[in-house]
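Here's a chain:
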Amino acid sequence: METESEPYVRLSTLRQLHQVVADLNTARSLADTLQTVADGVVAGLNYELACVNLVRPDGDLVVAAFAGSTAAEALITGRVGSRASWDRRLSMGSTWGDLRFIPHTEGWVLMDDDVPQWHTDGPAPRFEDEWHPHDRLYAPMYASGSGRELLGVISVDRPRNGRHPGPWGQEALQMYASQSAIAISNARLRSNMQRALVRLEREQQALRASEESFRQAFEYAPSGMAIAEMGGDQHGRLLRTNDALCRLLGRPASVMRRYSFADLVHPEDIGTLLRTSAEGGRAELRLGRRDGTYVWVSLRNSVVADTADGPRFLLTHVEDIEERKRHELQLAHRASHDALTGLPNSAELRSRLSARLCERPAQAGTATATAYAGYESGGHDGGYDSARDGGYGPGAGYESGYEPGHGPGHDSGRDSGYESSYEHEHGFGFEPANGAGPYDHHVHIVAPSSGEVDDGTKGLAVLFCDLDGFKSINDRFGHHTGDAVLIEVARRLTTGVRDGDTVARLGGDEFVVLADGLGAADAADLAVRLRNAIIPPIRVDGRAVRVGASFGIGWAECGMTVEEVLNSADQRMYIEKRSRAKVHRRAG
């Protein structure tokens, strides 16, 4: 069973997967690409053995690369299995998306067919999802397009954790196989184009034949291709685009010749484009479609000469990576959000809080970080005044530096801006169209005064919430009811805060609210409102249950660490809980 409840494990796996996928495009030849595919399974997907079987022109599959065992590599590399035997394997067992899993209880019939095999004997599984040495897991690689032409099959063996891969591992292997198919197709395409370019440079007589070969590779490439001018007044202007690029951007070739990539790129990605070198540069950015939308693409540049001494042109390979970006965003969201409630998890909470803090403390004379005790629902005089300046209400503003859109259940400031993680630091060879880009600056945060008189200071309040009576609900009615209570509490907390605030689940029955731009009284009122929202009965399967809540209010301030901020609020929460120890709330 995968430990998918541990976000740091999934983040580490995601980083490894991102690295091995990036490595696929660094290989110079098809053979290097195939070996990189096999090595990536062992290095990034936690399998001990990996084999890449490539479809030959006659349809049979040859073992083209092996990783994990030099003995096995020497034994089966270069051996061929018939297409009929492979088709049989890919129709047996269980289907996991595009993957095919054949357990040892069914795979014994394949022991004597002509597909090259390597396995070791081992004991029978001790539990249901334990990996058996005769288990088989295949990841087919299909070419892009609707035809789903089979390019090859990745076979893997011996997961390092000794268990069948769960949904996380299955999705990672499936996405890796998809990216491997693209890398193999691109390697073949690059190989064909390099041979055409060599012929163009070496023999003037073969110029027309080479041009035709290049034209076909260019025009009929499954991904976008473009040729642009280099140097002069028209530097960067598109001279020629293939049909795939025209379809991708929804613009005819005649219209495309009016533009350069600088005219089509998303405004936020212009810096990435300008930093991408002309020779061998790569970048991932967004290009504009005719309908006004943008599509994520991967650009790969190379410089070609028209003749031996003729002008040079920029050849750009444009690959549609919208689907991969979407998958990466989904994986990143799963790693940073709680699976039960959908709220940001502990790691994401600490990340957001850390982004607001710096090591430099506030200047002398400013208020120090102060923790305020929580308030009971009936212990605060007067109603909540949402019209108060800086108050916590629908019209309340946000302090500078705190990004609106960090909603409790989602993070629009991070999800929609995920492109920044993929920017490359190489130049594109185009001159900047305007001045320097935006620069980052830090707005220091301070805490309100700890005195009885509100000095009007607004700060970043950290409300630590612990549910009262939740354990008895779990013990009495079971975890199903407990989970339903946590989901409903998360919903009520989400409803009770502004769009720019963060509601996170720290773990168990503990939640944390980050609310910026509040004074001491505002934070106290907010704690009262949230507690009153939690107290009403929660109906689960026709039964009404109740939980209470203890709140501790702390304040984040530059010069403090994340743990110091959270511990401060946590301590104030326990002070409040002890002060109300005589108050008992009975679940049910």
Residues 1-5, 364-440, 584-588 have pLDDT under 50 and may be disordered.
